[in-house]
Specification:
The complex is a heterodimer of chains A (328) and B (343).
Chain A lengths: L1 E4 H15 L3 E5 L15 H5 L4 E3 L4 H13 L3 E5 L10 H14 L8 E6 L15 H5 L5 E3 L4 H13 L3 E6 L7 E4 L12 E4 L4 E5 L1 H19 L3 E5 L2 E3 L3 H11 L2 E4 L8 H12 L9 E3 L10 H7 L3 H11 L4
Parallel strand pairs in A: 2-3, 2-4, 4-5, 5-7, 6-7, 10-11, 10-13, 13-14
Antiparallel strand pairs in A: 1-8, 6-12, 9-11
Chain B lengths: L20 H26 L14 H10 L6 E4 L4 H6 L4 H8 L23 E4 L7 H13 L6 E6 L6 H13 L3 E7 L2 E2 L2 E2 H4 L15 E6 L3 H18 L3 E6 L19 H8 L3 H11 L5 H23 L21
Helix pairs in contact in B: 1-2, 1-10, 1-11, 2-8, 4-11, 5-6
Classes of the chains: A alpha/beta (328), B alpha/beta (343).
Chain lengths: 328, 343
């Protein structure tokens, strides 16, 4: 086991896959000379040269589409968005050209491409720079959506994503890039679509992922368990699409109570989808309606106290757990 | 002179660019096939057998034939917008499969999943058929990127309408191609109207080729009613791109003889009957036929035989399509995600 930061874990995944396959290349804004806006690609230009590590102009639709074209004829692009917020100007390229190509071409052309970068809120970046966009990508058939919450998962899932033959939306978090964690020594991968029980428990299941799991849920679990004298099970699906519903169903059969914590907005959010699936597959096992903790249904304001009030918090999670236990 | 009985020259005159009679006649056939194929589509659309949107290529045949059948090889790539039947035929996509696709048959180019606007054929290096205006232009740039990445001597021809030159992806795609010197040939088929909006009502610059200047890309204007001129100009930039990876942009001036789509009349609010009648006089197939006659390459009898050959091919397309099954319902859930071992 080695201790690395999240940015190092992602960097290792890219580096190892570039060594493994010459058709893999990385492009995006500031990934080369600048060494990455968040230093994720540090050292890769020096190692792999400008043919495979490419700085792009600020033109997300252009370089995302360029990646789709390169992937159609056999390359394996990794396209970095400085943040997923900027992917919205490339949405047509991802949602139409990448996602639909294999189906619409009747199997003629598939698109092995990874779109990756940080998503979600940071601190005081305002409404356009703080969005959790997983639901609008997971909504589109043809895309897979991956959102790791640990260094180990990030490296293993990114390596699998680069080897996958479909377009992958890989969402990281900029506030986590410096966070450290253990990763296994040597080569390993983690399959897509397989979640993990991060903590076993018996009274309430919490499903959460990415930064809100790493930075908020874990802070809440200990204090809630102590306060309510209960045991919480924590599930990280790791992949948003395909979602590992089976793992959640099994957990709910045991705990009979489910809280879903996500940073995105409530309407047509990922939690709404999970909630439907559980009510459909485990209705008789539920002792309370499924609770969701999400961001408030507003564009995220800049001012600190408004920002933190809008996002999921320890207090909101505490209240949701109490509600499914009828102890509110 | 009646060349039906006289031996045809093995090599033609300089006006015919020294091309062989076989080559020239194969181009004539290609243009005629596109025309007759589209006429059949119009008929089948009118009978309710083709659904959705259907954009016909009548009048623009010299562009696809000169640029694709003439100027590039099977290894080169072609990508285009939604008016895609002509380019697909010129690229060697089986016209029977194209018609089957239009009728939503399982034997179609994409098993009935794409329809008229989304013709694809991996074997022919035909990359679609794209229906979001300008959305395919960065894809073309990416295909050219892959060509250069692998040090191949190929090009990607990227066709688009005049309307596509006003959308952002046109500019982002051209900038990347010019910046990184990628072997993509952008071909604007300027047929004067983006649907019903004329170029001068949509673009601040009427000479669309000048937009390439902003991206340091070589550009020219080409007479799109003259298949030989199209071939000559496209071949020159294709050959150059294969040597130097230099992109180019050609504004090929053409005209569509039918409406924007099957739901649009041939003339209406945005263009007059007089205009259509006047421009139909420069029919690229008739003009090419006259040139071939004047140069002694072909006579009336040759054209009659050509008509018969093409008529038979179109009949075969219809027979093939009529005898083809609908896609089975199980196909609905296939091809959404690529898996290495089946499914």
């Amino acid at each position: 086991m080695a201790i690395v930061s999240l940015r190092e874990a992602i960097n290792q995944a890219i580096d190892e896959e570039m060594a493994r396959d010459e058709s893999v290349f990385l492009m995006g804004e500031e990934v080369a000379n600048y060494q990455g806006a968040y230093k994720v690609s540090q050292g890769l230009l020096q190692k792999w040269g400008p043919k495979r590590i490419l700085d792009t102009p600020i033109a997300e639709a252009g370089f995302a589409g360029l990646g789709v074209g390169a992937a159609m004829v056999g390359l394996r692009p990794i396209v970095e968005f400085m943040t997923w917020n900027f992917s919205l100007v490339a949405y047509d390229q991802i949602a139409n050209n990448a996602a639909k190509m294999y189906s619409m071409s009747g199997g003629n052309f598939h698109v092995p491409i990874v779109f990756r970068g940080p998503g979600g809120a940071a601190h005081g970046l305002g409404a356009t720079h703080s969005q959790s966009l997983e639901s609008i990508y997971a909504h589109i058939p043809g895309l897979k959506v991956v959102m790791p919450s640990t260094c180990k998962d990030a490296k293993g899932l990114l390596k699998t994503s680069i080897r996958d033959d479909n377009p992958i939306v890989f969402i990281e978090s900029e506030v986590m890039y410096g966070d450290k964690g253990e990763i296994p020594d040597g080569e390993y991968t983690i399959p897509l679509g397989v979640g993990e029980v991060k903590k076993t428990g018996s009274d309430v299941t919490i499903v959460s992922w990415s930064k809100v799991l790493a930075n908020v849920v874990w802070k809440a679990v200990d204090s809630i368990q102590e306060e309510l004298n209960i045991s919480i099970e924590v599930i990280d699906p790791r992949t948003i699409k395909p979602m590992d519903y089976d793992l959640i169903v099994e957990s709910v059969k045991k705990t009979n109570r489910l809280v879903i914590v996500e940073e995105g907005w409530p309407f047509a959010g990922i939690g709404a989808q999970i909630s439907h699936e559980i009510s459909s597959r485990a209705f008789d096992h539920l002792d309370a309606p499924v609770e969701r903790v999400t961001q408030e249904d507003v564009p995220l304001p800049y001012a600190h106290q408004l920002e933190i009030r809008s996002l999921p918090s320890v207090e909101k999670i505490n209240a949701a757990v109490k509600k499914v236990l009828y102890r509110d | 002179m009646n060349t039906a009985t006289a031996p045809a020259p093995a090599r033609s005159t300089s006006r015919l660019l020294g091309l062989s009679r076989d080559t020239l006649m194969s181009w004539y056939d290609d243009m005629l096939l596109v025309r007759r194929f589209e006429e059949k589509c119009a008929q089948l659309y009118g009978m309710g057998q083709i659904m959705g949107f259907c954009h016909l290529y009548n009048g623009q045949e010299a562009v696809s034939t000169g640029a694709i059948k003439g100027a590039i090889t099977p290894d080169d790539y072609v990508i285009t917008a939604y008016r895609d039947h002509g380019q697909a035929i010129s690229k060697g996509v089986d016209p029977r499969k194209i018609l089957a696709e239009l009728l939503g048959k399982y034997t179609g180019t994409t098993k009935g999943k794409g329809g008229s606007m989304h013709i694809f054929d991996r074997a022919a290096n035909f990359l679609g058929g794209h229906a979001i205006v300008g959305g395919h232009i960065p894809i073309a740039t990416g295909v050219a990127f892959a060509i250069k990445y692998r040090n191949e001597k190929k090009v990607c021809l990227c066709f688009m309408g005049d309307g596509a030159t006003n959308i952002g992806t046109f500019h982002e795609g051209l900038n990347l191609a010019g910046l990184w010197k990628l072997p993509v040939i952008f071909i604007i088929e300027n047929n004067r109207y983006g649907m019903g909006t004329s170029v001068d009502r949509a673009s601040a610059v009427n000479e669309l080729h000048k937009k390439a200047l902003a991206y340091n890309i070589h550009n020219e204007v080409v007479d799109g009613m003259d298949v030989l001129e199209v071939y000559k100009k496209v071949k020159a930039v294709v050959d150059r791109a294969k040597e130097t990876y230099e992109p180019a942009l050609l504004e090929i001036e053409t005209y569509r003889f039918r409406g924007h789509s099957m739901s649009d009349p041939i003339h209406g609010h945005y263009r007059s009957k007089d205009e259509v009648e006047r421009l139909r006089k420069s029919d690229p197939i008739i003009l090419f036929g006259e040139t071939l006659k004047e140069e002694g390459v072909a006579a009336d009898q040759d054209f009659e035989e050509s008509e018969k050959r093409i008529k038979r091919i179109v009949e075969e397309c219809v027979e093939f399509t009529e005898n083809s099954p609908e896609p089975p319902i199980e196909e609905l859930w296939k091809d959404v995600y690529f898996e290495r071992n089946g499914a």
